[in-house]
Design a protein that fits this description.
Layout: E1 6-9, E2 12-15, H1 16-27, H2 32-39, H3 43-52
Antiparallel strand pairs: 1-2
Helix pairs in contact: 1-2, 2-3
Length: 65
């Protein structure tokens, strides 16, 4: 998994494609349970991703000596 294809959400790294799939299924009107079943994710995880949507990644400052 390359950094360009991953998004950090709540300390977990999620494939951008997977996040986009969850958000698209939600946009199409699928229930959280149906999305969880299709993606293999827990319902609570799907709810969390939907609630947060697509966030801009936050990067930590580095100490360059």
């Amino acid at each position: 998994m390359s950094a360009s294809n991953a998004v950090a959400l709540g300390g977990w790294v999620v494939e951008l494609k997977e996040l986009m799939t969850i958000l698209e299924l939600h946009r199409q009107g699928l229930s959280v349970s149906a999305i969880a079943e299709r993606t293999g994710k827990d319902r609570r995880t799907v709810r969390k991703y939907i609630a947060r949507g697509l966030e801009v990644p936050r990067y930590l400052a580095t100490n360059e000596g």
